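Changelog-linked ticket: thiamine diphosphate example.
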Amino acid sequence: MASLQIASVDLARRMRAQAVKMVHRARASHIGSALSIADIVAVLYGQVMALDPARPDWDERDRFLLSKGHACVAVYAALAECGFIPESALLNYGQDHSMLMNHISHKVPGVEFSTGSLGHGLPFGVGKALAAKRSGRGWRTFVLLSDGELGEGSNWEAMMFAAHHGLDNLTAIVDYNKLQSLTTVDATLRVEPLADKLRAFGWAVREVDGHDHAALIAALERGAGAVGKPTFVIAHTTKGKGVSFMENAVPWHYKSPNDAELSRALEEIGDA
Ligand SMILES: Cc1ncc(C[n+]2csc(CCOP(=O)(O)OP(=O)(O)O)c2C)c(N)n1
């Protein structure tokens, strides 16, 4: 089975619109974090990963782990837009007893692993990739991390392990938006020189504009990575991308849009 072949630019636009509506309806947080990854997630779901929405547990599927689980609305929107879950399920996001919790949950069809406590996606993904290698399976594992999350030591242990085992079926992507919850990554715990560090840990490294779909596809498609090494894609992004007043603005880590802000956001996104 090949990728779903859904035009990813339009998919990302629809996901952004769904995401702001969900966060507005639920009075929830993390819209800036979700808008930051919309293009990466749209490219993975629409153009790169081998998936079957009718069979979320299909054995040969590529595995995707959202390690920055607080940005779940981007993935829930992708799952609805790609047919894993009904669009109507999005209406209950963040409500009591809803399947769609405020941090990503494996109770949702198409979600592999629950996250939210940062620093667990890559260690889990390394295990998945090793399992695929050991059982001679061709599926790939993708892990999407945040930049602030790199402060968790578990990631660096997982990186050593992945390189040691030559996991070239593993791709990590860092959503490098340079902001955390309260201030910049630089002011909190510097990650630079990031590419040098990742190379020193034995990974192949690519740097892309994380909102450029062609560049993302070129970096993520099968065969793009190095042979014998895991690949780290440093995706330079803008937190809040697509909504001018949310872009690069720290408060939108936690703030929820009011009715007027929702209308402005949808207008800017181009929600039909
Ligand atoms: C282990 C752990 N510590 C703290 C938090 C609280 N927390 C939620 S998001 C976040 C940081 C957000 O910044 P970043 O990780 O860079 O993500 P993004 O800016 O893309 O939202 C923190 C500290 C958490 N989820 N997990």
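Closing comment: Example verified and attached. The two ends are 32 Å apart (CA to CA). Residues 33, 36, 68, 70, 116-119, 146-149, 175, 177, 179-181, 239, 253 surround thiamine diphosphate (CB under 6 Å).
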